[in-house]
Amino acid sequence: MIRVRLARAEDIEPSCEIAVEAWEPIYDNYRRILGDELFNILHKGWEERKANSIREHYKRHPNWMLVTEMDGEILGFITFTLDREKMIGEIGNNAVKPKYQGRGIGTEQYRRVIEIFKYEGMRFATVTTGLDDAHKPARRAYKKVGFNKAIPMVTYYMKLQ
Predict the structure, then answer these.
(1) Which residues contact 53 (CB under 8 A, 6 or more apart)?
(2) Buried b / exposed e across 120-136, counting CB within 10 Å, b at 16+?
(3) Of 106, 51, 48, nearest to 75 (Cα)?
(4) What is the DSSP code string of the chain?
(5) How buried is 57 (Cβ within 10 angstroms: 0-12 exposed, 13-18 middle, 19+ buried)?
(6) Is residue 152 within 8 Å of 129, Cβ to Cβ?
(7) 75: buried, middle or exposed (CB in 10 Å: 19+, 13-18, 0-12)?
(8) 152-161, long-range: CB < 8 A, 24+ apart
(9) What pLDDT does 134 receive?
(10) What is the pLDDT of residue 132?
(11) Mind listing the pLDDT tens digit for each residue in 13-31?
(12) Cβ–Cβ contacts within 10 Å for residue 143, how many?
């Protein structure tokens, strides 16, 4: 049985490992799209930056991170923020171990965070994701829990020399 709970300090490194493993296909896709030269300018060392963003989030807001576990194993994590001025809750970094993806774990994490948003009096929830094929499962999962308004965006690059 899976359990979604507040993250603890000992959950951070396993969450960082999950993040790197789960985002690898996304960054591989970025490399294919951008080519090695631009990819290395923009994203070289992404693994450590991604892990550090999770560490820093937990350090600043330990109550704004949940993990999903089963039999003591961390299967996924989700970070979030609460903007009490604008009354918007935002889902941040989140991932499920690739071997457990497609089993509703991410969906359950989103539902739990949305419950927290409601409990905290937020009026809106937001999440940002990519439009590329590697982000298709994330987009599908966000829609599944009720995200239904989107502003499509694209970033263009051009080599000058």
Answers:
(1) 93
(2) eebeebbbebeeeebee
(3) 106
(4) --EEEE--GGGHHHHHHHHHHHHHHHHHHHHHHHHHHHHHHHHTTHHHHHHHHHHHHHHH-GGGEEEEEETTEEEEEEEEEEETTTTEEEEEEEEE-GGGTTSSHHHHHHHHHHHHHHHTT-SEEEE----SGGGHHHHHHHHHTT---------------
(5) buried
(6) no
(7) buried
(8) 157/34, 157/38, 159/37, 159/38
(9) 86
(10) 86
(11) 999 999 999 999 999 999 9
(12) 11
Q: Which amino acid is at 160?
A: L
Residue located via tokens 């502003």 = 151
